[in-house]
Design brief:
The chain has 84 residues and is mainly alpha-helical. It contains 3 helices and no strands. The relative contact order is 0.04.
Length: 84
């Protein structure tokens, strides 16, 4: 004799409270990964003089990248002008 198993398909949106439960679990896991005091430390560093220096270094790197791109475009323009 073969045994028949009945299966019922249910979509996640049909389960009442599932979305809220998932959101709660994700928030809890997020708090475990990034404790509140860690985030406070990060905010403190951002506001400190060290944070200003870090941002300035990042800005300088960004400017260097822009300058390199501008230099490359200028060289291409000069080469084009010599040809034409």
């Amino acid at each position: 004799m073969s045994q028949q198993t009945d299966t019922v398909k249910v979509q996640a949106r049909q389960i009442e409270g599932l979305r809220e439960l998932i959101a709660e679990v994700l928030a809890e896991e997020g708090r475990k990964l990034l404790p509140r005091d860690f985030l406070a430390d990060v905010e403190e560093i951002k506001r400190s003089p060290v944070g200003v220096v870090i941002r300035m270094e990042s800005d300088i790197e960004h400017l260097k990248e822009g300058q390199a791109a501008l230099q490359k475009a200028l060289e291409a323009l000069r080469a084009e002008m010599k040809e034409g």
